[in-house]
Every structure is written in C-alpha cells, then in structure tokens.
Amino acid sequence: MPEVSIVNTAELSGFDAISTNNHELVMYCNDNATGLKAIIAVHNTTLGPALGGLRMWKYASDKEALFDVLRLSRGMTYKSAVAGLNLGGGKAVIIGDSRTQKNEALLRRFGKFVNNLAGKYITAEDVGIGVKDIEYVQNETPYVAGLADKSGDPSPFTALGTYLSIKAGMKKVTGSDSLTGKKIMVQGTGHVGFYLVQHLVKEGAIVYAYDIHEDTLKKAVEAGAIAVTASEVYTRSVEVYAPCALGATLNPDTIPQLTCALVAGAANNQLLDEVRDGKSLQERGILYAPDFVVNAGGIINVFNEVNGNYNVNKATRMTENIYNTVLEIFRTCEEQSILPQQAAMALGDKRIREVGNIRLYN
Ligand code: NAD
C-alpha cells in the first residue's frame, strides 16, 4: 500500500490543524484600515517555492477559511508534484465578498504580506480574483504570477486540462474518448467553467450548466450550454459531472444523487472526505478523476512564467499530457486495487520523497 496521509482537519484549530497534514507555515494577515483579513498557508516547499492562487470568498467563519486554505495549499503540493513542476504547495484566502469588498488598497495591503515571505509563497489568480487584481498585488511584491503581459489568465489552460481529463475518463469508462452526444453537467461557469463549456460544445457534447450568478450562467448558455437549476446539478441523468465551482461537492448528501459514470472537473478539493467519499463513489460505480491532476493546466502555465522564457506552446504541450497522467492513474488503481485519489497522491509523495532525497546529498 503506498504511503498516503489523508486527514480531515475540519474540526481542528491552532497547531493541531497545521501539524496534522504537516503544513510548514500559516500566516494570518489583518489590516483594519483596508478591512483585510487573509490567511496564507504554505504546505510544503521540498520541490520549490509554494505557488498557489489567492481566493476571495464570503467564508462563514475564520475556521471555515482556515479549513479551506489548509486543504487548498496541500492540494497544490500534490498538484505540482504530479505535474512534474519544481514548485511547492501554498494558497491564500481573503475573507470577504469579491463582488463588493475587493479594491486596490485591500489587494495591495495583501501584497505587502506576501512580500514579507520573501518568495517562500508566490500568489496568482483563483476564485474571486482576476488578472487585474494580481496587478494590484504586484505593486507591492514581485512574488506574483499569472500576469497579463506574461502567462496571463491560467483558466484557459485549466479548462483544456479538464476537457482532456474528461476525454481520458470516458476512454476508461466506454473505451472511446469521443464526447460527441455525451451529456455533461458543468457546475460553475466562471473563468474555467466557461472555457470548458466551449471545448465540450465544440466537440458536440450536450452540455448542461448551472451557476449561482445569472449573468455568468447566461454567458455559458450563449456559448451553447443548456441552463439547469441548482437542484438538477446532481440529479439530472448525465454521463459526466464536472464540478467547476467550489470544493466539497462530493459528499454523503450529493453522491447518492449522482447517476453519472465519471466525475472530472476543475474545482479544487471536490471530495469532502478523501477516503470516505472516494470509496462511496467507487461503490456506486462512478469513476473519479482526481481534481489536482485534472486541474493542473493553470499551474503548469504559471510555472512556465516563473521559470522564465514563457512559451505558450510548451505550456500547452505540458497541459495536454494531463490526458496521459489521468490514464496512468487509472491503470495504477487497477494494478494496486486503490482509489484514484490514493494513486494520485502516492505519485506525488514518491516524487517529493525522491527529489527531496537528492537535495539532501548537497
Ligand atoms: P471563478 O470564480 O471564475 O468561477 C467559479 C464560479 O462558480 C463562479 O461563477 C461562481 O458564481 C460559481 N459558483 C460558486 N458556487 C457555486 C455553486 N454552489 N453552484 C454553481 N456555481 C457556483 O473561478 P475559476 O477560476 O473558474 O475556478 C473554478 C474552480 O476551479 C475553483 O474551485 C478553483 O479553485 C479551481 N481551479 C481554478 C483554476 C484556474 O486556472 N482558474 C486552476 C485550478 C483550479
């Protein structure tokens, strides 16, 4: 059995929460003048500086924000490790409504905190944060990525990798990776979801979509998706469910409602509990493509920027390889009788261990 540590930290706080999954650093950032309340988490820097996006969200509590940033930063460690990048895992969250509370001063104040970490953490776009926002952050720190005049918005790359993962998953399920005529549910049609809808419609899939924001959903419908209601997201009969909104949508409430054969989407941390919910999916005969493998296109693109000499063709080729990685993970699952999440994490753990050992030889 591969070495995989999977622990749910939802009920933990303080050092218990940080040490359970061996996070290196958690920084609380507060500024009363701008109203900034942010948390930066660095999970592991064995392979390189911790790179991960900045999320702005209306968390119900500090604990919920901590839980999210701990899970997201750990996911980034595995995402970069499996994608073969020389990056560690980190993430940041700002507590607040990005539609009403985001402004230049708040983002620049956040940038000063990032700068204090002197490159241990590099920030980029995530939910609620776009290219323009990262430009504000850049006024205060060079430790940013995903800039407009460099690699730009990572979401088209994330969408490409997600699209190819759906194809790889369908190849495993049906023997063919064609999506023509396949019914696919896209939950969340923001940056990534919108581009994903475009890929799927282009291939002739029947795409259903839902977003909590009407204007965002409307754009997806204009691109060829069929709008559904919130309650239909899990219950409508489809072949593929592609979560592209927030995490934890695979849980004991939703899994029994699903009728799909495959889950493959861009959202981070889709499984509320990596073991319990991964097993439930398997018991229902639903194949799960691990989120941090599926959605690595964005970090691959950003990595090519921070690595210098950004080249769009190289970033695209590397993103296209996600198709092969997903199939490799499904093969490992079969050979070792383990769940996809475990197989993917074992792949990441192996690289971190092996490369970490090389560094010890200095
Ligand atoms: P985004 O903010 O542009 O889009 C997210 C969308 O989800 C928004 O339109 C929002 O209204 C919608 N949404 C939120 N809750 C919802 C719900 N319950 N039901 C339906 N819609 C809901 O963010 P994004 O950049 O498109 O990222 C989407 C997901 O993919 C996130 O989980 C993000 O962490 C992950 N991801 C994004 C990238 C990237 O390159 N942007 C890379 C890796 C992973």
Summarize the structure.
By secondary structure, the protein is α/β, with parallel strands linked by helices.
Helix/strand layout:
Blueprint: H1 14-20, E1 25-31, E2 36-44, E3 50-51, E4 54-57, H2 62-83, E5 88-95, H3 104-116, E6 121-122, H4 131-138, H5 155-174, E7 183-187, H6 191-202, E8 206-210, H7 214-222, E9 226-227, H8 232-235, E10 240-243, E11 262-263, H9 276-283, E12 287-288, H10 291-294, H11 297-306, H12 312-320, H13 322-336, H14 340-360
Parallel strand pairs: 3-5, 3-6, 4-5, 7-8, 7-10, 8-9, 10-11, 11-12
Antiparallel strand pairs: 1-2, 2-5
Helix pairs in contact: 2-14, 3-4, 5-6, 5-11, 5-12, 5-13, 11-12, 13-14
The structure holds nicotinamide-adenine-dinucleotide.
Folded structure, characterized:
With 362 residues, the protein is α/β, with parallel strands linked by helices. The chain has 2 domains: 14-68 and 88-138, Rossmann fold (3-Layer(aba) Sandwich), CATH 3.40.50.10860; 155-296 and 325-347, Rossmann fold (3-Layer(aba) Sandwich), CATH 3.40.50. Helix content is 45%, strand content 14%. The protein contains 14 helices and 12 strands. The strands form 2 sheets. Strands 1, 2, 3, 4, 5 and 6 form a 6-stranded mixed sheet that branches. Helix 5 (155-174) packs across helix 6 (191-202). Mean pLDDT is 94; it is low at 1-7. Residues 125-128, 154-155, 158, 187-188, 190-193, 210-213, 216, 244-246, 266-268, 295, 298 line the site of nicotinamide-adenine-dinucleotide.
